[in-house]
Amino acid sequence: MLHRDSASYTTFKVLNTLFMCLIIVTVMIPLLKIIIDSFDGKASETVFRFFPESFTLDAYKVIISRPVIFRPLIISVVVTIIGSAVAMTITSLYAYGLSKKDLPGRKFFMGIALVTMVFRAGMIPLFLVVNQLGLLNTIFPIFLVHAMDAYYLILLKNFFEGIPSSIFDAAEIDGCTPFQTFVRVVLPLSKPGLAAIGLFYIVFFWNQFFDYILYIQTKPHLHNFQVFLRSLVIETDTQGFEGFSFATQSLKNAAITVSIIPVLILYPFVQKHFVKGINLGGVKG
């Protein structure tokens, strides 16, 4: 054990701080390059500048003014909201049931969830199931395939188990049904856990792009903003953005920055619940 006043502890603290600063710089440099280049009319993939050489807002003006971006952006927002709502509903209901010690078949249902953490069907079986259900080339597979994550289920189950049993007894005495107890008692007391897991789901559905390519093949108008961004950045597909007079790299980075903004706006509202929710859900056995 290191004493707080010892030289070893001071050395450890200094080295640990330097190491964390190195990680922060490593993460921030690519992000700063993207943001700075989005304002630079002479942006280049191989040159890093701390300040734009030719400051301009033209890339953002073009992105906002071009209708080609509106449909993918709306699809991303709608699917993220619906997908997160469906996933949170299924996960929270499943976790609430598993948190009850007297649930018949509790170990069986818990085992089904745990199996999915180790054994996954894979891309081809999932594609065949979606095709057999007639859901191919629709939005539904995007959020139905990922309607529940076993890891988040376990975190939320542990969080529910941390609620004192006396609260459930009081709700039952007051005449609440199990579902009313869940809605009126459990959910309000579980805001930290719900906020943390909800953020995970939102980020996942917002960043999703491969499932759109896999399950929506003949209706590209149903692709989301991330697929549009991929075609713009990787395939350099600037269809719908003709006529701009600045660097293509500036346009790409502006589009990437726009895709980051929704998560950056959302995170501060759930940050106060985030650490508490993960800690309370993760430390209980």
TrEMBL record:
Keywords: Cell membrane, Membrane, Transmembrane, Transmembrane helix, Transport
InterPro entries: MetI-like (IPR000515), MetI-like_sf (IPR035906)
Major localization listed first in the record, in broad terms: membrane
Gene3D superfamilies listed in its UniProt record: MetI-like (1.10.3720.10)
Keyword Cell cycle: no
Membrane topology label: Multi-pass membrane protein
Segments forming domain ABC transmembrane type-1: 73-270
GO BP term, example: transmembrane transport
PROSITE patterns named in the record: ABC_TM1
Residue ranges the record marks as coiled coil: none
GO cellular component: plasma membrane
Segments crossing the lipid bilayer: 12-36, 73-96, 108-129, 135-156, 194-215, 251-270
Protein's cellular compartments: Cell membrane
Record PANTHER family: ABC TRANSPORTER PERMEASE PROTEIN MG189-RELATED-RELATED (PTHR43744), POLYGALACTURONAN_RHAMNOGALACTURONAN TRANSPORT SYSTEM PERMEASE PROTEIN YTCP (PTHR43744:SF9)
Protein name: Carbohydrate ABC transporter permease
Lineage summary: Bacteria, Pseudomonadati, Spirochaetota, Spirochaetia, Spirochaetales
